[in-house]
Fold:
Amino acid sequence: MLTLQAPAKVNLTLEVLAQRPDGYHQIRSVIQTINLCDSLRFHLSDDIQFSCDNPELVMEESLVSRATSLLQQATGCSEGATIEISKRIPLASGLGGDSSDAAAILNGLNQLWQLGLSLEELVELAPRLGSDVAFFLYGGTALVEGRGERVTPLPPLPQRWVVLIVPPVPRIPEKTKQLYASLKPSHYTDGQITEKFIRALKAGGGFKPSMLFNTFENIAFDRFSGLKVYREHFIKLDAPNIHLAGSGPALFTMLEDKAQAEDLYMRCQQQGLECYLTETVHR
Structure:
């Protein structure tokens, strides 16, 4: 049996530079993995079988099944596998759970089936699944460009505690596509916000929380009914520098002090919020 962890992520910066001729958008983003993880267990089998402890995950619609099929097609492998998924990352939250699971599938089956594919070969397959999958093949702290397929590992972020809340707001089907479609030219930036963050990181990690940025915050609080209310509630609990983790609706704040993070987490729990206390993790 082979077991892999599939971590969630938060976007520390997320800039959209322009719309591309192919309909996708050109992005520049620094992404960070955190230790909120799904767990995937792999066994050799005669055919492909999936199981998951979260009944809300529709396997046929997930990137997990697509990643398995893609790897079989790309390599001509006819081996089977039983894949058991323990979900901890909330579904459709903007934390990248489906993409992270897909990256774990590529890694796990590459090992289980002894395919011998390099990281670079797996990264070439990743854009055929989704924009964040290539990042999750690296993990840690990384610059992501293009439509998400170009990943450049960065020096590790100094350890930070991350408190997440996932508001119980209506989830938007294909929310990321809809949010991109709702962007206006005034929401586009030139990539310098991300560049400033990277310079601070390379200079020794002296970045400030005020450097965090997510252009979707220009529209998401209107698109997700009730999200603004939960952001205000998070603020009243003394959460500093609150941002969308990705395309929403999960919100996060980063703290240097563990005791402060634990105290905020406890207050969120006492308010009945779906919340998570996590920390940043390296590659």
Notes: Residues 161-279 form a domain with the Alpha-Beta Plaits fold (CATH 3.30.70.890). The mean pLDDT is 94.
